[in-house]
Design brief:
- Chains A, B, C, D: Its EC number is 1.2.1.38.
- Chains A, B, C, D: Keywords: Amino-acid biosynthesis, Arginine biosynthesis, Cytoplasm, NADP, Oxidoreductase.
- Chains A, B, C, D: It is found in: Cytoplasm.
- Four copies of one chain form a homotetramer.
- Chain A has a seven-stranded mixed sheet.
- Chain A has helices spanning 15-24, 45-48, 65-68, 83-90, 108-115, 133-137, 148-162, 192-195, 210-220, 256-267, 316-331; strands at residues 5-10, 30-37, 61-62, 73-76, 95-98, 142-144, 171-177, 200-201, 228-234, 241-248, 273-275, 293-300, 305-312.
- The longest helix of chain A has 16 residues, at 316-331.
- The first copy, chain A, folds into two domains: 5-146 and 317-331, NAD(P)-binding Rossmann-like Domain (Rossmann fold); 149-314, Dihydrodipicolinate Reductase, domain 2 (2-Layer Sandwich), CATH 3.30.360.
- By secondary structure, chain A is an alpha/beta fold.
- Chain B binds chain C through residues 15, 178-180, 184, 186-188, 190-197, 236-238, and chain C through 15, 178-180, 184, 186-188, 190-197, 236-238.
Chain lengths: 346, 346, 346, 346
């Protein structure tokens, strides 16, 4: 007897959709129902994701309510702007897990400022590691999966903010990231010949849309009026985010040992945050394919700054893994069901 | 009649040595004399640098005074600690251009703190773009070529410091860099399988030896008691540095246009600093093989920080190109002789 | 009640050892016992394999009989030359699975010719897809895991040889491969700066040690006196083999459809060989981390040659995955236990 | 007084166009006139080629006869199908150098078979290393620049064919190549996330359009009715081709030394073909940015095959470098003017 939940994946032909399918294939309590896309409807999954051998012959259906209806769970891996309408039509009893930005921000003014459109409302935010967030996600029917960059920077800074070790008004986040975060967008910028052999920043000067989301998360960690200077840098790797986060210590006498102890305490029981042994720094390769964030933090006495660095797989813990982690919480399953902490390296 | 200067290259089999040879092959006023190495003496250049076709059959001789003597110029591309002794034996009339760190720092205490050995004295510092530095380098017989990371961060910050746009006491530099900066060092860290697909920080927390050199340069730009939080991140590319530098604006009302104007003014006549059109950010690929630093700067109004980003080729403008640029100045040649601003891309 | 088999992994700090551990962590019937190494004894697994979070604190013990004894299974991921002696000391009742070359070849003369040492004897060869090989592996206590290159080329050619579609006396195999196949060997050749941005052949002209193993396998497929011209080419990727195999058709009138039909028939029930839809060619990325070989074949009418191309992960189906596949057969478990056909991409 | 030739570059915003501009910037006898493109007319070169600093502010004009007229030389870096019409309008006195395929093939039937359109006629073929080809190119007003893959394979096989060492009826060419060969074509296949970490073949089974061009070149080397089985494999590097070519020896007793001697003799005075020391194999990295083809050849006694491997930069000697080499010949300049044999590595 099978009592599996049935999940549809909208936007199944993109990278986030493919990662959702990859992880769902290993999930013991969820079976894959409809897989849908816009332009690619009528093709087979094998044409888009040759790595998903068990789904090679699955037909891609159109992304519409007709094909998404009748599932227990609907994962949305669509461009932002599409989820509110779909969710409304699916009804309140379907678990809708949205990987796009539409329902992450609490403040409609911030949404308008950064996304230049009307705000579609706020859904429970899918970062279970935030204080009190698991209670909010338990049993929810709507999840706004965090952006990959905010997840990386929030997990790097949370213990320091929560323990009052830093002042949050002058945080600097510089983040190396992989082009798969942009999906299969066809632009010269993302061609292999442009990316290989190059490091290139983008959305510099406080204009990246993940900035208000980072700040909102820091408030959830206990910060008052946080300000983040965020610079993302594209580097030549298929997956991965390495977030270097620095912030002024609230007291220059705080030591590296105190910092480390705070991180140990904060993450002692987190299944998907891996604090490395003191002195060992994370690398993205170790997180490939895993729902894990690797972390380290210390003090730079020369500048009186905390330096905290996190590594994660932008498609896994950064997107699809987080989506499934939250799905587990929403369904009342063990949070770790179907998720691995083991990366594929080298 | 040939009136070329004759140059020896010590450490010719490493990456910095190879880049010196590559550039010297195109220099109209310098001919390559002895090429030397320690362990590889007796081999041919072609075994180490198959890209240097015209030197394929050149014999690598031992690195000792006997083989380095009798040249007008001696380039040292050796591990730090070796140059002082060699320079003393070559005599005061030979132009010695040292790519290692030995003679960069002015303060012996800083040397001891970061390098754990006795200071060998200070030589004229080979960053001609620093205020007044060309005069110091003109006619000199000793040049301390800057570290690649200090060159990138100094050029990114110089105009802002010189124009008083930022306070220098809380500068954050996060820098993506290529493994060729470590030379041909045999360590698991530098194996292709470890580097490809990964971003990994190292020497985190203010302990990297380039930190005091960066701060010393900022003093030369006009800063008082600068403090830099410096974090280097290895990324998978053969060459290149992308330095993301942020600092508090000295006055929060300073605008992006004012910043850009200051950079334009500062670098208007610099042959090897290329300020990009406003809004365009540098990428390392565009500098590959060229003696050029590409730059952009703006204001992040959300944090009241300047964000300045530079890109350069760590082996070219970061090391060997700078060495030749300074050699030109030392010899009284046109500073740009034999050097190109044109990168090889994609 | 746990009735798991207990496995030791010798050579656990290398890439093949790491992949064995990664796969064993997901195996429901095997638990990891001793993990051993030579020089790294006394360190922790987390220092070598930060991706294996659940094993981060496991102590690496010395590779000797004392530490390997007392297990049901011993995986050897050691340089060739070490396994025979260890196996003898472990006794006949322990399942010994050797990832090195020592016991692959049947012909001692070939061993001596290619490996320049005495032959240690032949063990059951761990390529279950060979005709009759599953019967040989069932219940065995010794397994010689195939070389990654012979696995790729044999699977690409097997159906054509078995069906008599090609003459085996003039086979050409040119194979793109990843540097992880060389393990953590410290040599300039394997430095990131040498590998990135380059394609470089090695062991050219019929001298690669995998050549006789390929030919031996083709005999097992039904060929008489096969001859393979084998050229491996290192390319910049962490994992993966793409084997382009061509051979003269035994009859120039053989069509692409006939070839495809033969491949379909040969691999219809193979769990770990994935014949792609006709006209679609394999790519290594799709096999990353999976125990799968992707395949396609066609006819080049211009030359009367079959062209068959296979892709696999050199560390997974090419080494550690094959080791576990054979272990399953040797233990009487379902052959697919603990192994996945799903790659991690992009 | 300047007596430079003036050159226009059509298709200047693509990769081949960019490489033409890069090389022309160093050419002492040619100055850059109009730079044109189709969709990008009205933009600046700096937007497309940030590495070409001296041309950053050059306006891109439309690709039409009005803008191309009035130059001594017109380089065409356009998709095939465009050059004949333009050339006709430019008149017979303008040197037109076409980097596309339109005028390479001699046999109209082959053109129709592979390109599915009408043949536009044959121009002098721009591979000066072919026997007698320099005479044909001297003073010509039309040049058909070879395809990058035919250049690599022809140079690898020429001495063996010319000396009668191989039979040309069963040649196998497997070639690792960089995605820049496809230009800035926007397709998922060429996205960084697809290319990095992967080796993927394309146009398999004798259908690649460079196949008849390879065979035509072998005829020019002296072969009768050559047949080439050609398989290109995309690998993750920005530039480079590594062509592994094998062919049956005409006599199995031919030795590796005889082969090497034939290659030495054939290329003794070729400025842009670099035969490596016996036993050393080429790698693409060593040719980056240079107009050089690196070569090695040997015998595989096990199969009675010659194995010859060439490496070159697909954009340099593979396209733009060859274009300028032929331009030099057509103009009566020294063939090596403005071209370098020195690569940029690592």
């Amino acid at each position: 007897m099978t009592s599996k939940y049935r999940a549809a994946v909208a936007g199944a032909t993109g990278y986030a959709g493919g990662e959702l399918l990859r992880l769902l294939l290993s999930h013991p309590n969820i079976e894959i129902g409809a897989v849908t896309a816009a332009k690619s409807a009528g093709t087979l999954i094998g044409e888009h994701h040759p790595h998903l051998v068990p789904l090679a012959d699955r037909l891609v259906e159109p992304t519409d309510v007709e094909h998404l209806a009748g599932h227990d769970i609907v994962f949305l891996a669509l461009p932002h702007g599409a989820s509110a309408e779909i969710a409304a039509q699916l009804g309140p009893d379907v678990l809708v897990v949205d990987c796009a930005a539409d329902h992450r921000l609490v403040d409609p003014a911030q949404w308008r400022q950064y996304y230049h459109s009307e705000h579609a409302g706020t859904w429970p935010y899918g970062l279970p590691e935030l204080p009190g967030q698991r209670e909010i996600l338990a049993g929810t029917k709507r999840v706004a999966v965090p952006g990959c960059n905010p997840t990386a920077s929030t997990l790097a800074l949370l213990p320091a903010v929560a323990a009052g070790l830093i002042s949050a008004d002058d945080i600097v986040v510089v983040l190396a990231t992989a082009p798969s975060g942009a999906g299969k967008k066809l632009a010269v910028t993302y061609l292999a010949s442009e990316i290989m052999g190059s490091a290139s920043p983008y959305q510099v000067g406080g204009i990246h849309r993940h900035t208000p989301e980072m700040e909102q998360n820091l408030v959830a960690c206990g910060a008052t009026d946080p300000h983040v200077s965020f610079t993302p840098v594209l580097v030549p790797m298929t997956r991965g985010i390495l977030a270097t986060c620095t912030a002024k210590l609230s007291d220059p006498s705080i030591t590296a040992d105190e910092v480390y102890a705070a991180y140990q305490k904060a993450y002692a029981s987190e299944p998907f945050v891996h604090l490395l042994p003191q002195g060992v720094w994370p690398q993205t390769q170790a997180t490939l394919g895993a729902n894990t964030c690797h972390l380290q933090a210390t003090v730079d006495p020369n500048t009186g700054r905390l330096v905290a660095i996190s590594a994660l797989d932008n498609l896994a813990k950064g997107t699809a893994g987080a989506a499934i982690q939250c799905t587990n919480l929403a369904l009342g399953l063990d949070e770790t069901t179907g998720l691995s902490t083991i990366g594929v390296a080298p």
